[in-house]
Amino acid sequence: MKEVDLISVGMTNFGKHFDKTGRDLLIEAAREAITHVDKGIDMKRDVKALCIGYFTPDLFEHQGHIGALSAEWLGLSGIPAFRTESACASSSAALATGYFAVASGMYDLVMVAGVEKMTNLDTPGVTNALSIAADDVFELTTGITFPGLFALMAQEYFEKYSGSWEDLQTVTLKNHHNGSLNSKAQFQAEISAIAEKTAIKKGVTFKDEMDFLKSKYNPLVAYPLRLFDCSPISDGASVAFLTSREISKRFTDKPLHIIGVGLGTDTISLSGRPDLTTSKATENAAVAAYKMARITPEDIDIAEVHDCFTINEVILSEDLGFFKKGEGLKAAQEGRTSLSGDKPINTDGGLKSKGHPVGATGIAMVHEIWLQLRGEAGKRQVKGNPKIGLTCNVGGSSASAMVFIFERGEK
Amino acid sequence: MLTVQNYVNGLKDNKILGTKCKNCGNIMIPLKPVCSKCGSFDVEEFETKGKGVIRSFTVIYVAPEKFKDKVPYVVAIINLDEGGAIMGRLTGVDPNKPENIKVGTKVKFEALVEGEEVVVVFRVDN
Ligand SMILES: [Zn+2]
Description:
The complex is a heterodimer of chains A (411) and B (126).
Chain A: E1 4-11, H1 22-35, H2 43-46, E2 49-53, H3 57-61, H4 66-73, E3 81-84, H5 90-103, E4 109-117, H6 123-131, H7 146-160, H8 165-179, H9 191-202, H10 209-213, E5 220-222, E6 225-226, E7 235-244, H11 245-248, E8 256-265, H12 280-293, E9 302-305, H13 310-319, H14 328-333, H15 350-354, H16 361-373, E10 388-395, E11 400-408
Parallel strand pairs in A: 2-3, 2-4, 9-10
Antiparallel strand pairs in A: 1-7, 1-8, 4-7, 5-6, 8-11, 10-11
Helix pairs in contact in A: 8-13
Chain B: H1 4-12, E1 17-21, E2 27-28, E3 43-47, E4 51-60, E5 73-80, E6 85-91, E7 106-114, E8 117-124
Parallel strand pairs in B: 6-8
Antiparallel strand pairs in B: 1-2, 1-3, 4-5, 4-7, 5-6, 7-8
Zinc ion binds at residues 21, 23-24, 26, 35, 37-38, 40 of chain B.
């Protein structure tokens, strides 16, 4: 098996792009990824295959056949191109597929991408489109929603361990702080700033951030989760280039080595799981990725962890082995996962604040690891010259999980 | 072979059907056509009594289009007495007082026909 390097990543701003289609967003992300290749890339000459993660263009854009369409728009018609789908982990599935393709020796350079154009639909329409990632027979007939599924996990977590919704807000506050330092984020604002703005607009006052978070301006979505526990509806795209290690230096002296890849699944129906406070898919993926990389969770300097809802960042941070079961919430409250903590998580603001165009999220996580390990993360750069980073992207209610571990190249 | 349609028909007859592995005895609710423990395809229909306890619950305030007029409503995961668990809507509780809904409370299944669909509903067994 060949070793695989990441030679560039690019992404659009995440947010509401009312004037753009999915394919427009893909081109925008590709343009940035191309400019990020230190020594340049000739797309026509170098790209041997293309893999696009896109959860449901069928429902969002009435568009299928994304592989050939994307190749055409990128000026690459003729090369092998196809779409991967694993709900919110669709672009991690593209990354995994690209990894397999390069590692096998079949292609020496593969372009991988993620796209989601969600704002074509109104909120009930988006809720409906996303819901197909849950079990149509055993779950959706009850009227459950995605916030509802994660609310069920949160309730079981509070029941089994300790903690409350109030404690979870430490994740909201942290990720909004990080997002306020990210010019690509959908919400570049601290919760305190959002509270202040709301207070002025509505002519009310809030004692503090928690007073705002408990107010009607942060309404319940699925008890106990409220609006600010949820990642937003977003449009966006992300692109990365993978090469065999043999040729990566033709493109950059500062590649990231992909040293660990781990993938896992769990039952789609939550009721089929013996314990809602843990993601078996993530545990399986993490164990495989650490084993391949020959490292332990202690070796990870920085991580991107799928916080589609606040509770999930806590649960997954335990499943990834960063903290003991039941101690993830406490660790977050102690500041261990903040920018200056010993295990910084979601330094780009996470899905919560950066935005969550579902198909684009996996490679957008890689974008942050790329910046941080190369020392290019600007105001949110973590100290201590991080060398090893991890992404953990899950699909649906964590029924799919994909973990990648990256190590900074020599120079 | 027990299909999804058999399961749905079972609900209409007020029964929650699961499967039982003939090889290792594993009981699977929701039903699975292949044993999740030993991998055997040799499974048979298993009828539950439809009784169990609340394992976890949530109150839905933002609903998909077709449930919009029902909010707020409670959805729970119920641990069935025979083993296994299933998701259903919860009635006999006040959705506006979630603090009064307790994990471990006994509930009983009843089928609710809503248009074309049968909804799994559990009633708090007072
Ligand atoms: Zn069996």
